[in-house]
Structures are given as structure tokens and as C-alpha cells.
């Protein structure tokens, strides 16, 4: 089972990417995935959507096809978003516009919101409300909000708040188990063929 983690921060060396790499290793260590991969939006590697995607533009195909294959080969996802001004970063919202060929469809995804303080709820609501319609990603009823992120999940234990760090490490294992179970279950749904339709390609 392969789980792909999407780190949605544009910043280099971001806290979101730190959490993504920690979670990728946690999934492996706890037998919740056999392979993981982190894809980071640091530095904006994906241009803003334009009609060239629909028209089969060669430059878009060269950029997206390798990533499309990795997404299609994944059984589930972890979507990590920092809270910027109470919002999901533009690059992460743009990410969801790029996949309309079933790469994400009917696959489970765990939302992980990242906050440097006590916030983090707004990205969860925004992603659940508006990022799934046409790509048909399936968000779990479980999510994580990693608050005061600078003080948890650091490799240097002296930088962690011991009690809070322990809580988030345990909660990540719990959520990873749910993601893994959903990934197994939804594989059967996709293989049944019931989700395939050339008539109803877009959500309502």
C-alpha cells in the first residue's frame, strides 16, 4: 500500500514539510503503509492552472504526467495545509485543479492542518468544502490539527513540549491506522467498476 503525502506550504523548509516527513515515516514504522512519498509544493513547482491542460499542451504533459502516475499509483493521501490568514495556501488549492482523470478519485485522504499557534481549523473546513468536487478525493471523517507546531515532532527532543509532542505522536498513529483501513476498503469500491462513468465526469 502506497500513501502519498502532499505538503501544501509554498515555503522552503516549512513546518508542514517537517510534519509530512514525520508522518511518512510513522506510516511505515507502524505497518500502515508499505511505501510513502512526500510531494512538497515548496517553491511553487506547479504553475497556475490554465486551459493548456485541457488542450493537451506538451509543456503541461511533461510537467504533470510523472506526478499523475505517482498519484494514480497511490492508495491514499495525506493532505497537509498550513493556515495562512485563515486560509489554505493558493498553491494547494491550485493542486486540486490539476487532476481530473481519476488520479485522486475515490481514494481516502487525511487532512492535516498546521498552525504555529492555537489556530488551524479553517483549512480543514475549506478543504472539506471546496477541494474534492471534480477530482473526487474522499476525505476521512478524522483529521488532525497540529497546533504550536514548532514545539512538536522535532528530531531534537529538547525542542519539543514533552506532553504535547507525545499526544500528537500517538494521535498520528491513530489517524494513520484509520487512513490505512479506508485505503484497503476503498480499493474494492474502485475495482467494482461502479465509480467509472464517462457521462458523469464532474461532481455536482
Structural summary, described in words:
The protein has a five-stranded parallel β-sheet, sandwiched between helices. It is globular. By secondary structure, the chain is α/β, with parallel strands linked by helices. The relative contact order is 0.17. 38% of the residues lie in helices and 17% in strands. The model has no long low-confidence stretch (mean pLDDT 96).
Topology:
Layout: E1 2-7, H1 15-29, E2 35-40, H2 58-72, E3 76-82, H3 90-97, E4 108-114, H4 121-130, E5 138-146, H5 162-191
Parallel strand pairs: 1-2, 1-3, 3-4, 4-5
Number of strands: 5
Which geometry do the CA atoms define?
globular
- Number of helical stretches of at least 4 residues: 5
**Global mean pLDDT:** 96
Spans where pLDDT lies below 50 across 5 or more residues: none
Strand order of the largest sheet: 2-1-3-4-5
Query: Quick one: biggest sheet?
Result: 5 strands, parallel
In N-to-C order, the SSE pattern is EHEHEHEHEH
Q: What structural category do the secondary elements indicate? A: alpha/beta
Q: What proportion strand?
A: 15-25%
Q: What is Rg?
A: 17 Å
Helical fraction equals 25-40%
End-to-end gap: 30 Å
Amino acid at each position: 500500500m502506497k500513501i502519498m503525502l502532499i505538503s501544501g506550504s509554498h515555503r522552503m523548509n516549512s513546518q508542514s514539510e517537517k510534519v509530512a516527513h514525520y508522518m511518512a515515516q510513522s506510516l511505515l514504522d507502524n505497518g500502515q503503509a508499505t511505501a510513502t512519498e512526500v510531494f512538497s509544493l515548496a517553491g511553487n513547482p506547479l504553475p497556475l492552472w490554465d486551459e493548456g491542460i485541457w488542450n493537451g499542451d506538451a509543456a503541461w504533459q511533461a510537467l504533470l504526467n510523472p506526478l499523475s502516475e505517482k498519484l494514480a499509483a497511490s492508495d491514499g493521501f495525506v493532505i497537509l495545509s498550513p493556515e495562512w490568514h485563515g486560509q489554505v495556501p493558493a498553491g494547494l488549492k491550485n493542486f486540486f485543479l490539476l487532476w481530473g482523470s481519476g488520479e485522486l478519485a475515490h481514494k481516502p485522504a487525511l487532512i492535516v492542518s498546521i498552525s504555529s499557534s492555537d489556530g488551524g481549523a479553517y483549512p480543514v473546513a475549506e478543504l472539506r468544502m471546496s477541494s474534492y468536487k471534480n477530482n473526487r478525493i474522499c476525505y476521512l471523517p478524522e483529521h488532525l490539527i497540529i497546533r504550536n507546531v514548532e514545539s512538536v515532532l522535532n528530531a531534537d527532543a529538547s525542542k519539543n513540549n514533552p506532553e504535547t509532542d507525545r499526544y500528537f505522536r500517538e494521535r498520528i498513529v491513530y489517524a494513520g491506522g484509520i487512513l490505512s483501513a479506508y485505503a484497503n476498503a476503498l480499493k474494492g469500491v474502485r475495482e467494482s467498476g461502479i465509480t467509472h462513468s464517462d457521462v458523469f465526469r464532474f461532481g455536482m
